[in-house]
TrEMBL record:
Keyword Zinc: no
Protein name: NMT1/THI5-like protein
Organism: Lentilactobacillus hilgardii (strain ATCC 8290 / DSM 20176 / CCUG 30140 / JCM 1155 / KCTC 3500 / NBRC 15886 / NCIMB 8040 / NRRL B-1843 / 9)
InterPro entries tied to this protein: SsuA/THI5
Family to which the UniProt record says this protein belongs: Belongs to the bacterial solute-binding protein SsuA/TauA family.
Amino acid sequence: MAYLKVKHIIISALGLLLVAGGLAGCGNKQSADSTKGYKNGTITIPAKNGSICGAPNYIAYEKGFFKKNGIKANLVAKPTNIADLEAGFASGKYDALNGDFQYLPAIQNGAQIQAAGGIHQGCIQVLVPKNSSIKSVKDLKDKTIATPGQGSTPQFVASIALQHAGIDPKTGVTWKTYDYDLLAKAAQKGQVDAIGNVDPYAYQAIKEDHFRVIVDNNNHAGNNEMAKMGMKKDGSCCYLYLADKLTKQNPKKAKAIVKAYQEAADWINKHPQQTASILLNKKYVSSSKFVNQKNVSNLIASYHFGLKKSKGKADVTYYANQLKQAGFLKSDTNVKQLVNKAYYDG
């Protein structure tokens, strides 16, 4: 009797093992099926932050440019803290990023990413409330400027303008940090004197609350006043970044990602209205009275999307020199060596 009981237990245990093995096999099959047809595998992109300049991420996904190039893309929330982004790339959590020249100091300090091309022109402004006594960058001396974060591109844009006006960005102003959507309110309440922000938040502050533009880093027209503030004519504001593990260990996949973004950027440049519809309808960008189809279309057109490889490298070199002068790169930085480290020419 005891023998039969033990036999029954053994048979039951074997049955459970077989079921578990079958489920594991099924799970492996489902995992394989999820990437079937994607010869270059999966990538994860920290894309979602509500900004219009992230359009290449969304269009590459929505219009099938990732899939066309054999990539299964996962779009996730973008951390506001650059340290979290660095950690994500170092750990292998993230693979690609549509970001700004703000990552140059991070790359110098060991961030495992490389720029692969300039992807569009300016989307950042330094603004003051409509009744502010501040009329120019020189008036920002000893004032308080708020940006979305220390080391953010709005802070760097403001800093470049400050140094061109003879103001030390490290000691000549006070910096504060607020979330993108709270910056304008902070200035209206008198908590800060000026703000640096990205579109659509900057655009909304201009249109809805009548903020005045002190600095605009989109200098496509070659405005002389902006040029004097260090805003490069036709300079790329945002870049495509790839993880080092791709550029150095999987160049085939890296090139496929670059191609997907290049095709998406070209499509955006030709179809600003359709791009705006996708961004708003899919809730990648939150709509409002002024952040609407017409205005978002106009903004997208003004960014002149298109992946620029060699010109992008020249722009990175320019901004590296500017950030060195502003004290955000080490004083003994060899800019040429840094750019060679920071840029993917594949």
